[in-house]
Amino acid sequence: MRPDTPAENVDHPAEAARLERTAARYPEDAEALLLQAAAHLELAGDRPAATALYDRLLSSPDNLETPHLVRALKASNLWEYGHEAEARAIIDGVRAASPRDPAPWVIVAESLESHDELEAAQETFTEGVSLLLTDVPEPPYSTHPLLFGRHRVRRMLGVPHDEWDTLADTLHSSSVSLDELHDPKRVWSLGSDNPAELEAEISRLRAELGAFREALSRPFPVAVLHWPEGELAELVGSYASLAEEYPSHEEHLATIEGSLRELAASGTPNLGIVTGTVPSYEAFAASEGASPGDVDLLPQYATTLAARGRAVVWPPQRGASCWCGSGDSYANCHGRTEA
After folding, report:
1. Is the separation of the CB atoms in 127 and 109 below 8 Å?
2. Which pLDDT tens digit goes with each residue over 171-206?
């Protein structure tokens, strides 16, 4: 389904079933695909079926890449159909776990917000922001919803701006400021008989819709392809035409980090890394009717992996391991800033 497909034109149960079938074909991508399927079931109003998918994923938490995200989504879904006590317990568990991924923080905070728990929502947004963005020179794209959500809730509570709110204002790119978009009085203007007030509100809504469409237009990161050392050796050994593209593994890793830094410096948001394997790449080449030795196939493979939910966010969150698989922290590995 394209991200701009109108919701009324989507058969959500059918889309969920399609994604479940795809997950069966690609078990290595089952987590991302089943999360998408659960989202369609929620949109279809079949919340118990969505919960069943979340439970299916959580039945083997050791194999999950994002267990806190799955729990957060389950909690949000449960609360929507009357299981408040269980949802609250899961939310408390997610907060106590202090995940390094911003997505679970956003989901549980927005769940609290949607049920008028504004103080708890503000506390949750603030916990996530403090954990992930303290002493971080440039907030990663994936953390922007944390800052924007915190700004929105604090605006609803009528509390003064602080440094995090100022940072959110700075990162916000729409022509309408966050203060306007998050103004609690906007709801009153929708019932106004004053044409000027209504016209101003329409302009704000258009700006908000534009920002929303911009976010939807990038449903997965701009991904750079990474080969682990053993996989790269097998790839180049099997397809000599790729040796020029990959002179050495060390140079390959340096090229990845350099490319991502250049993209970030140019203002490209939502960057990520996908890790390839030779069997997966060969299967992809066969599906495209192309030779695995074709250099032009590599970026297509990267994009396909990203679309299947295989991308990890770059740069890694503070304190996280380096993307290269060395086991060292990113700050002490490829994240080092040369003097």
Report:
1. no
2. 887 777 777 777 776 645 555 556 666 566 556 556
- Whole-number Å distance between alpha carbons of 197 and 188: 10
Q: How far apart are CA 284 and CA 78, in angstroms?
A: 38
Helix 67-80 and helix 84-97: axis angle, to 10°? 160
Interatomic CA distance for residues 311 and 297, integer angstroms: 18
3-state percent breakdown (helix, strand, coil) of the chain, nearest 5: 65, 5, 30
Cβ(53)–Cβ(34) below 8 Å: yes
SS3 of residue 296 by DSSP: coil
- Strand, coil or helix: what is 226? strand
Run of H or E residues at 224? strand 222-226
CA distance 337 to 333: 10
Q: Is the predicted pLDDT of residue 219 greater than 70, yes or no?
A: no
As given in the structure block, the two tokens for residue 310 are: 């295989």
Tally of residues, the chain = 339
- Cα–Cα dist 215/101, whole Å: 18
Q: Which residue has the tokens 């297509």?
A: 300
84 Cβ neighbours under 8 A, 6+ residues apart = 78, 115
Q: Which residues contact 263 (CB under 8 A, 6 or more apart)?
A: 222, 271
**For 161-216, where are the alpha helices, taking DSSP H only?**
163-171, 178-181, 186-189, 195-216
